[in-house]
C-alpha cells in the first residue's frame, strides 16, 4: 500500500498510524537536514508527544540547502511528508508511521529565510553532519577562511550556507520586531550548541561586530547529546518495509529500538514538553556527552579497526569475535571508563553493557566500514582526548595506543589477509602514504599534528604506539590482540 494520508486507514494490521489529527498540527520548528537520523530521532520524539494530545503547535517544517535535500523532498512530498519508522528489535520488528513533519520548504534560500522569519517558528534545528559546521581542523574554532563562508560574507543578501541563511532570518525577525528563534544542533559532535554558535557568530563577525554581538546576546544555542543507531536506507531496508509490513514508502527509516536525547534547557522562546516522552533536560549536558563520546563512540572505534583488519563486514559479527570483544572490554574498563566522570543516578557500567547489547543487535545491519569511515575526523573526537586525559593523570595508555596503531595499520590499505581496503576517509591518500612511512618508522604517523596535536611529544604514548604498530606488522592483528588481552 502506498504511504499517504489518504491510505493510513488501509495500511496492513499492526502498523501504528498517527493517533492525532495531522490537519490540526501547526509548525513551531524548522529543521534543516531531513536525513534518516532526524526522522528516527527528533521527529519520533515529537510524534510521541503529539500522541499524548499536547503541544500540537510544535510540528516540523523540513528544510535543506543541498541537492540531496531536494531529492528527499521529492520522495516525501507524494506521501504527505509521512515516514515509516521500523525499529529493528531482535525480539520482533515494529513499524510506526511518523507524522510530526507537516511541510518541507522548497530548496530555495529566499523561501527558507521567509519561513524561518515567521513568528510561530521558535526553534530552528539542524542535522547538517559533523563536518557541516566549518570547524578549523588545526584550531578547533570556526574556519572563517573557507570559500563558502567568504562567499556568504560577501553576499549577505544571497546566502548559500545554512549559517548565512540563519543570520538572514534572524535579521529579518529583528527588523520586524520578532524575537529570535533558538538554534538547536542535533548533530553528533561535542558541545554541538557551542559549535553552532561559533559558526553563526563567526560568520556574522565577517559582516559586522554589532551583528555578531547582537546574536551572542540574544540567540540561544542549547547543547544536546543525541543517540540512535540509524543505518542508511538501501534496498535491504526498503525490502524490510515492503515485504514485512506491506508499505510502499519511498524513504523509510530503520533504526535500533534505543534512542536517547539529553538537552540543555535553554529555550527563551519556549519549547515542546519533550520531557514527557523521555528527553532529559539538564543544566549541563557535558557529562552525558563525555560518557557517550568515550564509551559508545570510543567503543565503536575500538571494535572498528581490528574487525576491519580481520575482514569482518557487519558490526554484530564483530561482536561474536572473542578478540574484538575482549579488546573492547579490557580497554573500556582499564583505560576509557575510568576517565568518565560520575553522573548522579547513572551507572557507567550499565551504560557500557547497553552499548555492547546495541552493538550486538544483528537486525541493524550496521557495517564495519561505516564505523571505520572518516577516522581522521573521528579519532580526534572519540579517542585522542581520552589519551590526553590519561597522560595528564600520569596513567598508562597501552590499550589506547594499540587502538591508534590499529587505525594506522588499517589506513595502510590492506587487511591482515592481504585484501585491499577501499578508500574510507576524505584524507585517504594522505593517510595511506603516512601509514606506509610508519611501517618502518612508527613516529611518522604521529607527525600529523592536525590530528594528533602535541601527543607526539609524550614519550609514554610514542613508545606505546611504536610497540603496538611494530607488533601488528610483525605478529599480525590476531596475535597482537591476544597478547594484549592476556596481559
UniProtKB/TrEMBL annotation:
Pfam families: Mannitol_dh, Mannitol_dh_C
Domain Mannitol dehydrogenase N-terminal as annotated: residue spans: 28-275
Mannitol dehydrogenase C-terminal domain ranges (all copies): 284-473
SUPFAM superfamilies, A to Z: 6-phosphogluconate dehydrogenase C-terminal domain-like, NAD(P)-binding Rossmann-fold domains
Alphabetical list of InterPro entries matching this protein: 6-PGluconate_DH-like_C_sf, 6PGD_dom2, Mannitol_DH, Mannitol_DH/Oxidoreductase, Mannitol_DH_C, Mannitol_DH_N, NAD(P)-bd_dom_sf
Gene Ontology MF annotations: oxidoreductase activity, acting on the CH-OH group of donors, NAD or NADP as acceptor
Protein name: Mannitol 2-dehydrogenase
Organism: Hoeflea halophila
Amino acid at each position: 500500500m502506498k504511504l499517504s494520508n489518504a491510505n493510513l486507514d488501509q495500511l496492513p494490521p499492526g502498523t501504528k498510524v498517527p493517533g492525532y489529527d495531522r490537519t490540526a498540527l501547526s509548525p513551531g520548528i524548522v529543521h534543516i537536514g531531513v536525513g534518516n537520523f532526524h526522522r528516527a530521532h527528533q521527529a519520533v520524539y515529537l510524534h510521541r508527544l503529539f500522541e499524548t494530545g499536547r503541544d500540537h503547535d510544535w510540528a516540523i517544517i523540513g528544510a535543506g540547502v543541498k541537492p540531496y535535500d531536494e531529492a528527499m523532498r521529492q520522495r516525501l512530498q507524494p506521501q504527505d511528508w509521512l515516514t515509516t519508522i521500523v525499529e529493528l528489535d531482535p525480539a520482533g520488528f515494529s513499524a510506526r508511521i511518523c507524522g510530526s513533519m507537516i511541510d518541507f520548504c522548497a530548496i530555495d534560500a529566499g523561501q527558507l529565510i521567509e519561513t524561518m522569519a515567521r513568528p510561530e517558528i521558535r526553534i530552528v534545528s539542524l542535522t547538517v553532519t559533523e563536518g557541516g559546521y566549518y570547524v578549523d581542523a588545526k584550531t578547533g574554532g570556526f574556519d572563517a577562511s573557507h570559500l563558502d563562508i567568504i562567499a556568504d560574507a560577501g553576499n549577505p543578501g544571497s546566502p548559500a550556507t545554512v549559517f548565512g541563511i540563519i543570520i538572514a532570518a534572524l535579521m529579518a525577525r529583528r527588523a520586524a520586531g520578532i524575537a529570535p528563534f533558538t538554534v538547536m544542533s542535533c548533530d553528533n559532535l561535542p558541545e554541538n550548541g557551542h559549535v553552532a554558535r561559533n559558526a553563526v557568530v563567526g560568520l556574522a563577525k565577517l559582516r559586522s561586530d554589532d551583528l555578531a554581538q547582537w546574536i551572542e546576546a540574544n540567540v540561544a544555542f542549547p547543547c544536546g547529546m543525541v543517540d540512535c543507531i540509524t543505518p542508511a536506507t538501501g534496498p535491504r531496508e526498503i525490502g524490510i518495509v515492503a515485504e514485512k509490513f506491506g508499505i510502499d514508502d519511498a524513504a523509510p527509516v530503520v533504526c535500533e529500538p534505543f534512542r536517547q536525547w539529553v538537552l540543555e534547557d535553554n529555550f527563551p522562546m519556549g519549547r515542546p514538553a519533550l520531557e514527557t516522552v523521555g528527553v532529559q533536560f539538564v543544566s549541563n549536558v557535558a557529562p552525558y556527552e563525555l560518557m557517550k563520546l568515550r564509551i559508545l563512540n570510543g567503543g565503536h572505534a575500538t571494535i572498528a579497526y581490528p574487525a576491519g583488519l580481520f575482514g569482518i563486514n557487519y558490526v554484530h559479527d564483530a561482536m561474536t569475535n572473542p578478540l574484538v570483544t575482549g579488546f573492547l572490554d579490557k580497554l573500556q574498563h582499564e583505560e576509557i571508563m575510568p576517565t568518565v566522570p560520575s553522573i548522579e543516578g547513572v551507572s557507567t557500567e550499565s551504560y557500557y553493557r547497553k552499548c555492547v547489547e546495541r552493538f550486538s543487535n544483528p537486525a541493524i545491519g550496521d557495517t564495519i566500514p561505516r564505523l571505520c569511515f572518516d577516522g581522521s575526523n573521528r579519532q580526534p573526537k572519540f579517542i585522542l582526548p581520552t589519551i590526553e586525559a590519561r597522560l595528564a593523570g600520569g596513567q598508562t595508555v597501552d590499550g589506547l595506543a594499540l587502538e591508534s596503531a590499529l587505525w594506522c595499520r588499517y589506513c595502510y590499505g590492506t587487511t591482515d589477509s592481504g585484501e585491499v581496503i577501499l578508500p574510507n576517509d576524505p584524507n585517504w591518500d594522505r593517510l595511506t602514504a603516512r601509514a606506509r612511512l610508519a611501517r618502518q618508522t612508527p613516529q611518522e604517523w604521529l607527525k600529523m599534528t592536525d590530528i594528533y596535536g602535541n601527543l607526539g611529544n609524550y614519550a609514554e604514548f610514542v613508545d606505546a604506539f611504536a610497540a603496538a604498530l611494530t607488533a601488528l606488522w610483525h605478529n599480525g592483528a590476531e596475535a597482537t590482540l591476544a597478547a594484549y588481552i592476556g596481559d
